[in-house]
Amino acid sequence: MAATHTLTPAEKVGRAVRALRARDNLSIDDAAAVAKMSPTTWAAVEKGRSIRPMTFAAVEYVLKLRPGALQQVLDTAAMCSADGVAVQVLALLLPDTAPQARPDITGDVRKVLASAYSDGTKLAMIADLVR
User: Fold this and answer.
1) Radius of gyration over alpha carbons of the chain, in Å?
2) Which of 9, 55, 81, 106 would you label with 18, given CA atoms 20 to 30 Å apart?
3) What pLDDT, in 10s, does the model give residues 37-89?
4) Other C-beta atoms within 10 Å of 19: how many?
5) Are 11 and 48 spatial neighbours (Cβ–Cβ below 8 Å)?
6) Where are the domains of the chain?
């Protein structure tokens, strides 16, 4: 029987970064170009291998996250599932971007986060709200 790999906090954050990049329909090359970093560095973030503050700052800029959001999530990621980390990242995204487009979305997200649904279901529900 093969051993299962437990994701590190950085790998969980990387998966959330990948999901947000995909949500924005950006390729790794496109995201890296906007962030002014190499595609290899961006891919390292998504794999949980690069967690330098300046790298995170550039990724946050591209994904429209508030400064420090990824470090904040990384600090608590050990206590969450991978989907839970993605939910946290999406929740951090909302205060800076979504309310300008849809003022009612913050309340909707809070209701989803407070629900008894699994993290995976919450993630899907929040992603639908953000679209």
Assistant:
1) 15
2) 106
3) 999 999 999 999 867 888 889 998 998 887 888 887 777 766 666 666 666 66
4) 20
5) yes
6) 9-130
- Single pTM value for the model: 0.65
Cβ atoms of 69 and 59 closer than 8 Å: no
Instruction: Kindly state the tokens that stand for 82.
Output: 């991978």
CATH class, range 9-130: mainly alpha
| Residue type, position 5, single letter | H
What is the DSSP secondary-structure string of the chain?
Answer: -PPPPPPPHHHHHHHHHHHHHHHTT--HHHHHHHHTS-HHHHHHHHTT----HHHHHHHHHHHTPPTTHHHHHHHHGGGS-HHHHHHHHHHHHGGGSHHHH-TTHHHHHHHHHHSSS-HHHHHHHHHHHH-
Q: For residue 122, what are the CA distances in angstroms to 1, 19, 56, 72, 101?
A: 32, 14, 24, 20, 21
Residue 119: burial class (beta carbons within 10 Å; 0-12, 13-18, 19+)? middle
Give, in degrees to the nearest 5, the angle at Cα 83 between 2 and 123. 145
